[in-house]
Amino acid sequence: MSLSDFRLLVGLGNPGSKYESTRHNIGFMVLKKLAYRDSVSFSLNKKLYGQLADIRNGSQKRRLLMPTTYMNNSGRSINAAMKWFDLDIHQILVLVDDMDLPLGKLRFREEGGSGGHNGMKSIISELGRKDFCRLRIGIGPPSEIASNRKDQAVNHVLGRFTKKESTKVDIVLDKVIRGLEVIEEFGLKKGITFLNSSNADQL
To answer: What is the 3-state secondary structure (H, E, C) of the chain?
Structure first.
């Protein structure tokens, strides 16, 4: 499998300026950076319940989707897009935040559970399957004290990155995009190795 097999890249997040650049929206951030790099813009697609942009890949299109359903209903948008574009489950890649990973750590998986993430729960529920590719992007925990994490989780994911964190986030976004290029050039196995070994502290 190469990136050319991923016909739909989905970033998870919440729509609107209120949630712009929050930790929960790091999936959106990746897609916006990809769109900027390729000089394309997003437009609202009501049938797909999301913002959609197309990137040319030879004679084919790679589609970037940012659901506007809010995080907890992300699966509705993805399910609609897969049906509309007649895509197989192995042709999608979901980009999602993960507060159980340190900021800058990446983890690519070809299948798995939700990990307690409401957006992922929605996708699994809508698709009825867990065997889709996802790239978890670490945003760091809300607290170093495990017993405090649950109470602080919502404020943490809906909060914005600090100035110091933002510098690292920029590096991470570039690393994700480079990882996608590695998949394109050398195949999925090498791409996964590259992404999973990535840490912003080492960039």
So the answer is: CCHHHCCEEEECCCCCHHHCCEHHHHHHHHHHHHHHHCCCCCEEEHHHCEEEEEEEECCEEEEEEEECCCHHHHHHHHHHHHHHCCCCHHHEEEEEEECCCCCCCEEEECCCCCCCCHHHHHHHHHHCCCCCEEEEEECCCCCCCHHHHHHHHHHHHCCECCHHHHHHHHHHHHHHHHHHHHHHHHCHHHHHHHHHCCCHHHC
pTM for the predicted model, two decimal places: 0.93
Superfamily of structural domain 3-202:
Peptidyl-tRNA hydrolase (3.40.50.1470)
24 is catalytic: yes
Residue 150 CA, chain-centre distance (Å), reads 22
- Residues 8, 78: Cα–Cα separation, whole Å: 9
Give the rounded distance of the alpha carbon of 126 from its chain centre: 17
Kindly report, residue by residue over 68-90, the tens digit of the pLDDT: 999 999 999 999 999 999 999 99
Q: Are 136 and 98 in contact (CB under 8 A)?
A: yes
Residue with tokens 């897009």: 81
